[in-house]
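Allow me, if you will, to draw on your knowledge of protein folds for a short while. Thank you for your consideration; the sequence and its tokens are set out here:
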Amino acid sequence: MNMTKPLFSSLTIAVLAGLLTACGGSGDNTNLDTLGDQVTDEQKDHYYVPNDFYDRIKYDSETLQFQLNDSYLQFTYSDDYTGTKLQNTVLADGLPGDTLYTRVLVTGLATDVEADVWIESDGDFAEFAIDKATGLFGETSYEDDMSKLSFGKDKTKLTNGTWVWVKIPVTEYDQTRQATLYVGNTQNPLTNTDLVEGIKTATIIATTPTEQAKGLEFTFADRTGLNAAIAGEEQITSISVTNLDIVDEAIDDFTTKQSHEITGITATNVPIAVSSPDGAGQYRIKRRGSETFEQWTSEPGVVSAFDRVEMKVTASQTKLAIVKATLTIGEGDNAVSDEWVVETLGDINASGGVLYPPKSAFTNAVKVPARGRVVLRDSAEPDTTITSLVLKRTIVSDDEPVEEIIDIFDSYNPVNGIWQKELSLAAEAKSQYVLEAVTSLNETVSAKFTVTQSATIPTDFPNNENKLVKAMDLSVDLANNRYIVLESDFGKARLIAVDMDTSERTELIDLHGIWGKSNTESVQVDNRNNRVFTGDRPSDDIYQVNLGDTSIHSIFSSHNGTVVGSGSAIADPAEMDIDYANNRLVSSNNNGGNQRGVNVINLETGERWQYVKGQVQSVAVDHDLNRYLMLTGNKGQILKAVDIVPSSDELGTVPLQTDAQLGDNFTDARSIAVVSYKEYETSEAIEAWTADGFKQSNGDPVAEEDQVGFALVGENADDTLYKVNLKDGSREVFSNNGTPNFDVPFSNLEAVVVEYTLGFALVSDVDSDAIFAVDLKTGQRMIITK
């Protein structure tokens, strides 16, 4: 491999530094001819001495490029640290054959002053080039075309506000190469005296890893049972063979250094192969530095460090048939592999088989409502029927497990597929339930859920691993069977994945460690594109993370720094929702000064359009009445509605209902979610469903004007989740400490979320650091994780 890696297309270079000193620092723009004797000799010396080098060049792991607004390395010092600080040290990681580039900015010189610049390296391999800055932070003349830079080793002169590029080739594994850049003057011509510390240095250390032919472990999420695939559907997932992490290393008791850690494949031409008895599996590769994938193939091939692999399995056209494919990367002891199993859906549609309770939850109640929906698909033969519906319960406690079968077929409505049952829970025990449905053709489908009961509400559930602290927002990752929780505070921000089946928490991605972000306020899963958005308040950026491979992440939309997408500015992005009908991410802006209101953002391009002005705490899509609902004001006091305009071209031609207030004011409402009738989210819609449309109990159609759901608003003034009538804005208490009962009370309702196929709302309580499930029919509460 022989690759030249310029900045913005390099593997990994990072400048370890403090804050970037503005071009034109102390002593700049001072004309020496006018100084005379007005300043002291010490002050005169200052004009000839540059500042220490301060810069951060940051790594974008999706494009394998470096940008000024992405992940970075840094040193952290305590206030009383007295050792040598290393802000002028550059660390570079590469692979053999790479040419690594980095740069530093020269500031602090007076306007008319020149300084010497040169570079030294053991082996004389390093070169440098001069690049005069054309902007205050980051813009330079040649950063997009490195061929215009003239690299060399001879000493030359430069002036203030100049970038100095450094070029280091690396040639083999386990290599460390060091160069030192010198900038400054040794004498002050105004005083003819030697300068003290007149030369500033930047030390560049380029390293390469050990050669490694073993890739990262990977696991495919099988598509079976309730998660089976549609006939002929292509399943595609992404795999990384190499990963780059930022790790903290303790220098002493006071100081930590961050560095890059490369894991997985660092070698070239590592074998890759797919085996599939049914011929259903294929893979394709995007090579390091390439923007496109190669063609799908089932033939053996090779991968190298930082290539990306996608695996595809095509479901059978036959009902309930299973196809399998195994992907193997590496060989012998270095081989990593997994089998992907994909089943084709049968006649039973049990995706909403259990609507409530959640798959895993805790309660201190002795009885809980249970309900679900089991129907036949359109592809089923006309004479196929559901013949059996039971709940199999296993009680897990300190004693021997107790098993029983609860026949719920008598509660089953074959017209709409609804079943419901009040469950008596085993005290101080875990009750595991399996819903089992059987057809007249003996097809069986099952769905599982577990309820843990105790009179005492635990301090953590199901354990204390990755305990939540300030869960500011949450969303639902349906494809990967998990809830995504944003945990954010000053100095930290991370996404926590909560497994739906077990309630266990794992860290999905450390947003602070990657982007240096904290005080992030919003998260939204894009289930159709297998990614998650986060809105960062300090930077006014919206980021995206690939849910199949979280090492793939980038800025999705921004008007600052690295501009992505054109259009209106973002100001303190708060809660978001997705309007798939119009291909939009809808983002509220909770900034009272800028009054950015609501932005709608194209899901493909990141292009922004300011939809509504004002300060908006939360926004949600009302599918039933084709509008957006907003909690406006600094504490979401006023609930307003605005019509959905299909495209930005129509703005100004269609009147917006910016003043359409719904109901009375709230006091401190932070989140709103819409429970849609037409999206089959309300219990009324689910129970009215038939193959011929929504029907009343007497068989008459449900009138169009009655096909309207409701909104849920979390009001912190009285720790209540309110149900809001979408027609007139009237509201009623839906769930609080007393309604419908006193079980597992919540408070400080930070976020409310509703997702299709779930029969409950998700509520984040930042007082108890817990996520609650609230039954959309009864308001009953349970704890999902704590």
In short: The chain has four domains: 3-207, 225-245+261-343, 348-453, 471-676+709-757. The domain at 348-453 is CATH 2.60.40.10 (Immunoglobulin-like). Helices lie at 41-46, 511-515, 683-688.
